[in-house]
Amino acid sequence: MSASKIRTKVGIIGAGPAGLFLSELLHRQGIDSVIIESRTRAEIEGTIRAGVLEQWTVDLMHQLGVGGRMAREGHFHTGITLRFKGQSHHLDMEELTGGKKVTVYPQHEVIKDLVAHRLAQGAVIHFGVQDVALAGIETDRPSVSFAQADGTPAVLDCDFIAGCDGFHGPSRQAIPAGHRREFQKIYPYGWLGILTEAPPSHHELIYARHDRGFALLSMRSPEIQRLYIQCDPKDDIALWPDERIWSELHQRLETVDGWKLTEGPVIQKGIIAMRSFVCETMRHGRLFLAGDAAHIVPPTGAKGLNLAAADVLVLSRALEKFYAKGDASGLDSYAATCLARIWKGERFSWYMTTLLHTDDEASPFEHRIREADLDYVVSSRAAATALAENYVGLPI
Ligand code: FAD
Ligand code: DHB
Prior knowledge:
8-stranded mixed beta sheet; 36% helix; binds flavin-adenine dinucleotide
């Protein structure tokens, strides 16, 4: 069977936040793109992941005309609570950052809004593709071959490929290993996350450090809470019946007099491992990596989705310059521009993770240093401001 040929300017692999934001940004600049995605639309719209959007990501959603539902259904948070040693400390992000907030609006809702908007504009998104392979990335006519959902082969010929296919996708692997500069840290902890049908027990997020391990209280709607506890990343979820999860949550979160965690039926649960990873080779020839394809952060601090959106904002500006003026300087500086901010996101996520998790491998000295660090954050305006400005999102 001969492959059907598709021609576009930018071939985008992956319909996660990076791929969808990029396609939307390019469309506004009159640059056509085609997205190929290995999962079905229902799968990408149903996967429970991130929850917290930085202020500028929220602003971007509005600029792109996809912020309406978020404005109605999102939760706007002006602060967070840090809880440790039996005390709660409120960090007023808005006051510390001169008016910035974060918004709790689930990643899969962002995905739904972007997919609906893109399709309404006539965008081409091939869902359920298989056997994706990149070719010619060192030439100026790269292509992506794949099998469409019905099995028919297709080839996407393009000027540029945007590898937005997450940590496990094929794009990063298409860069010869000898050219890739990679950095990694694996953490000895994982997160067990649940969704529960119970109204939020608190009006803002609570990040708790406890001798039994970290716990996080977040939310999705006035009826649904999102909760996480630190666990062994190798644990089987079968080892965690609901009663055990609730017992840990109560012990780690109910450390303040009179504060009670509301329980409800658990409607979803899962365990994720945690790593920090950066592939500094974000460009190789005509291939550009963006989002989780190039970098991963542990979830503490909620940076992953926001870093993905920042990459594609930089990439879209570089492509606009290229197509409008034949100026490739933005493409040449793409990796360096992104990496300056990515490494700060990596640092912050590593810092929040180290600060708040219980590490059996850490020495008693290191435990005391972490406690001192937390005490410092809640007792020094300068330290609190440093945390707050990273949490709400550094400038792009
Ligand atoms: P992805 O979302 O992984 O999208 C990649 C897409 O590519 C996927 O749809 C995948 O199916 C597709 N793909 C893969 N292989 C192929 C292929 N061969 N062909 C075609 N398509 C392919 N981040 C935050 O900012 N805030 C948070 O609060 C937050 N909380 C999190 C909580 C959890 C539990 C987890 C797991 C993550 C969290 N993150 C958070 C991180 C965030 O979810 C990711 O950083 C974000 O999804 C990255 O977007 P992306 O588009 O780069 O990659
Ligand atoms: C959520 C996830 C995070 O990683 C975080 O730091 C805060 C909230 C969430 O899923 O709601």
